[in-house]
Amino acid sequence: MSTATTTATRKVHLIVERQDGPNSSPYKEEFVVDYKPGMNVIACLMAIQRNPVNKSGKRVAPVTWEMNCLEEICGACMMVINGKPRQACTALVDTLEQPIRVSPARTFPVVRDLVVDRSRMFEALKKVKAWIPIDGTYDLGPGPRMPEVDRQWAYELSRCFTCGACVEACPNVNDRNSFIGPFAISQARLFNAHPTGAMHREERLEALMGEGGIQECGNAQNCVQVCPKGIPLTTSIAAMNRQVTYHAIGAWLHK
């Protein structure tokens, strides 16, 4: 049998965990789509969208999901694939065990099917002031330069695209507590290291000392295992733990 014939007859079997709305019960639905060389999970979902017929031959509503860049840059297509939170755009069918089990990241509220509401992440970023405040009403000129040795590791932290994989993998992030998650702690470290961002260093440390702060981390280290950018999240957590401890001791001594 030729390679072309083998490819033409090969199928991809998916089991998708679906949910019709935020208050609906989840259920599983199976689909079989034609295989194409180099296809990823997004390509499978697009095939279902073009012909929304399940494995039993019943026509159903197309599966809903999010995507944007398809280059592992935006983080929009993060979902749980074969038990691991990851980007669907880089989840190649040839590397996945079948049936491919796809489900939403249930650390977040499900909107529909694989679409989730990640507002919790953005609220965490606001809590730690994950930005560099400047007065943009006039030309400030060139900003302060970071030492090259600091810039190199800070760049690695800046690659975070708020996909939510680390939050989904963290056992301490759930609906029973308010832990801000590994990504927010790492971003606090990034902005504390910036010469201008350091002006709000104490506010970030106070936020990390408050409810849902760094003390909620259980050191499971799942986060660093699933980060698609290989960001040293556990190193950031250790570094911020040190900063918070020194800040707390200093505040106590100045009472």
Automatic annotation (TrEMBL):
<dbReference type="InterPro" id="IPR025192">
    <property type="entry name" value="Succ_DH/fum_Rdtase_N"/>
</dbReference>
<keyword id="KW-0560">Oxidoreductase</keyword>
<dbReference type="InterPro" id="IPR050573">
    <property type="entry name" value="SDH/FRD_Iron-Sulfur"/>
</dbReference>
<dbReference type="InterPro" id="IPR009051">
    <property type="entry name" value="Helical_ferredxn"/>
</dbReference>
<dbReference type="InterPro" id="IPR036010">
    <property type="entry name" value="2Fe-2S_ferredoxin-like_sf"/>
</dbReference>
<keyword id="KW-0411">Iron-sulfur</keyword>
<dbReference type="InterPro" id="IPR017896">
    <property type="entry name" value="4Fe4S_Fe-S-bd"/>
</dbReference>
<dbReference type="GO" id="GO:0022904">
    <property type="term" value="P:respiratory electron transport chain"/>
</dbReference>
<keyword id="KW-0003">3Fe-4S</keyword>
<dbReference type="GO" id="GO:0051537">
    <property type="term" value="F:2 iron, 2 sulfur cluster binding"/>
</dbReference>
<dbReference type="GO" id="GO:0046872">
    <property type="term" value="F:metal ion binding"/>
</dbReference>
<dbReference type="GO" id="GO:0006099">
    <property type="term" value="P:tricarboxylic acid cycle"/>
</dbReference>
<dbReference type="InterPro" id="IPR012675">
    <property type="entry name" value="Beta-grasp_dom_sf"/>
</dbReference>
<protein>
    <recommendedName>
        <fullName>succinate dehydrogenase</fullName>
        <ecNumber>1.3.5.1</ecNumber>
    </recommendedName>
</protein>
<dbReference type="GO" id="GO:0008177">
    <property type="term" value="F:succinate dehydrogenase (quinone) activity"/>
</dbReference>
<dbReference type="Pfam" id="PF13183">
    <property type="entry name" value="Fer4_8"/>
</dbReference>
<keyword id="KW-0004">4Fe-4S</keyword>
<dbReference type="GO" id="GO:0051538">
    <property type="term" value="F:3 iron, 4 sulfur cluster binding"/>
</dbReference>
<dbReference type="GO" id="GO:0009055">
    <property type="term" value="F:electron transfer activity"/>
</dbReference>
<keyword id="KW-0479">Metal-binding</keyword>
<dbReference type="InterPro" id="IPR017900">
    <property type="entry name" value="4Fe4S_Fe_S_CS"/>
</dbReference>
<comment type="similarity">
    <text>Belongs to the succinate dehydrogenase/fumarate reductase iron-sulfur protein family.</text>
</comment>
<feature type="domain" description="4Fe-4S ferredoxin-type">
    <location>
        <begin position="151"/>
        <end position="179"/>
    </location>
</feature>
<dbReference type="Pfam" id="PF13085">
    <property type="entry name" value="Fer2_3"/>
</dbReference>
<keyword id="KW-0001">2Fe-2S</keyword>
<dbReference type="GO" id="GO:0051539">
    <property type="term" value="F:4 iron, 4 sulfur cluster binding"/>
</dbReference>
<keyword id="KW-0816">Tricarboxylic acid cycle</keyword>
<dbReference type="InterPro" id="IPR004489">
    <property type="entry name" value="Succ_DH/fum_Rdtase_Fe-S"/>
</dbReference>
<keyword id="KW-0408">Iron</keyword>
